[in-house]
Amino acid sequence: MPEIFHPESGSPAQPSTRPGQGHFVADVRETPLAVVDSVNETEAPSSLWGDAWRDLRVRPLFWISATLILLVVVVALFPSLFTTVDPKFCELRNSLGSPQSGHPFGFDRQGCDVYSRVIYGAQASVTVGLLTTVGVVLLGGTIGALAGFYGKWWDTILSRVTDIFFAIPLVLAAIVVGQVFSNGKTVWNVVAVLAVFGWPQVARITRGAVISVKNNDFVTAAKALGASKLETLVRHVIPNAAAPIIVVATVSLGTFIVAEATLSFLGIGLPQSVLSWGHDIAAAQTSLRTNASVLFYPSAALAITVLSFIMMGDAVRDALDPKARKR
Amino acid sequence: MVRYIGRRLLQMIPVFFGATLLIYAMVFALPGDPIQALGGDRGLAPAVADQIREQYNLDKPFFVQYLLYLKGIVTLDFGNSFSGQPVMDIVKRAFPITFRLAMMAIVFEAVFGILFGLIAGLRKGKIFDATVLVVSLLVIAVPTFVIGFVVQFFFGVRLQWFPPTVGGNVSFESLLMPAVVLGAVSFAYVLRLTRTSVAENLSADYVRTATAKGLSRGRVVNVHVLRNSLIPVVTFLGADLGALMGGAIVTEGIFNVAGVGGTLYQAIIRGEPTTVVTFVTILVVVYIVGNLLVDLLYAVLDPRIRYA
């Protein structure tokens, strides 16, 4: 039997024999602990997501990245709100021209308006980044969840398949496959190639999260209540394993945007007719010595976009991790 | 330990076969005919195309082709490229250069990443920490090719501290700039990993015990904190060796290094499937072996891990 400690009677280990000291430890009701320990029993218990949201909304990093992401998405959806200049209207007499009214970033080598091209280039990056992330989460999430939840030979086979795809570097595979589609390539080809070779990381993380969730009591309870295996997985395990998947998806979104730019830079990504920051950076390479701003603006736009997704991932990770949470 | 290594080697076998099959299928079985592409827009005469197909075993069923290709890997005979050169010669020329480049990049990112990460982790929340974090985020967000251009322009063209391109002159000095550019992104990851890991371990019980028993700060940090913090970092570095060798395409292109990336890129563009398959296979093997080495290093770094 553990001895129950009563502040009023004093600790049994240290009897209150010294003169002038009734007890060594202050009554809980007299300490600030009383406030911390008080429980409002009528309040609904806070969920993981509720806690995370309370934590997120006081973080400047979250608000900065959320604002930037919102801005980039709005620019991608409605580029015409931000510029009236046609990005494909180019006049050679303006080649590498300096900024003037109506053209704040100047002109590139072909005499196209740099500001307008930066604005219209957002669409390709955001589309490829978002679609690839959706594809990777569906593909990697399904494979990882099946491997982690069903275990046994499912796990053995699916984990080896994951290892196989993991062993082939993303950009390398994308180049090899991308070469096949060199004629009549669309945004969808690039998304498909990146998704097919980008899923292993999500699969590994999902598998780990599902394994750590599936032994919880509520999963056993769901099974005991007669839920089928698939129902247990979809309704009880996956919602509770979602946090790490969301974090890795947010950060990889940035990675996929860089991968798209790299492929376009190498000339085997998006078709030349699609405006893309990768294409513009590749074209600006030759102008670096004479007019560095042509290289600077699309690079800065790309970097800010990627940065905002990475910062968002960082903020969400910190908010979801109880160890890192500050009270 | 021996049993563990054995099990890991056994696990490598399906990964090796799967990855090589996937690569082979990607290069040869996907739509698009590399043989017809040799002839350009006019196409080859059927007899010539058939002869080339026979020479490269492309007339046989896919699975037989794959097995012949596996036989070539095991006997280290990779056949000839379409221009008639033995692929082994191309491998011998390209891989040493890229291996040197990747090793220099790994040393750079390990030394500076761990050093800055350790200092930042020990002074979490201070000005040094904040600066280093912002810089690392920038390095991650700015694509490698932009970093490459800017570094090449400033240090190679403007200041002329280093040769702007490597070309035929492969020396430590000329490889230094490409190595730093190649390792830049991983440097930022190593830094952030080390920082998080050090900051977390500083509040661990065994660190308090070490301090309580009177060890000097230096010994606590170097022996107890750093050694335990290096475990995730080593995982990252091991996986990174393969990624760096394969991912050097952009960097090698910018600095004109005649290594794996440049050769592979040319081979893909020109439609040289035998060279592509060989190079990618070697890269995958490097990657798998790197990961195995990492797992074995764990035991050295963390005495709590015992392989049964």
Question: TL;DR?
Answer:
By secondary structure, chain A is mainly α.
Fold and architecture overview:
With 327 residues, chain A is an all-alpha fold. Chain A has a single domain (56-86, 103-324), classed as MetI-like (MetI-like fold, Orthogonal Bundle), CATH 1.10.3720. Chain A is built from 12 helices and no strands. Helices cover 77% and strands 0% of the residues of chain B. Chain B has a domain at 89-258: Orthogonal Bundle (MetI-like fold), CATH 1.10.3720. Chain B is built from 13 helices and no strands. In chain B, 38% of the residues are buried. Chain B has helices spanning 2-29, 34-38, 46-55, 62-74, 87-122, 127-141, 144-158, 172-202, 205-212, 217-246, 249-255, 260-270, 273-301. The interface between A and B is large, with 37 and 41 residues. Chain A: InterPro entries: BP-dependent_transpt_permease, MetI-like, MetI-like_sf, OppC_N. Chain A: Residues 122-313 form the ABC transmembrane type-1 domain. Chain A: Keywords: Cell membrane, Membrane, Transmembrane, Transmembrane helix, Transport.
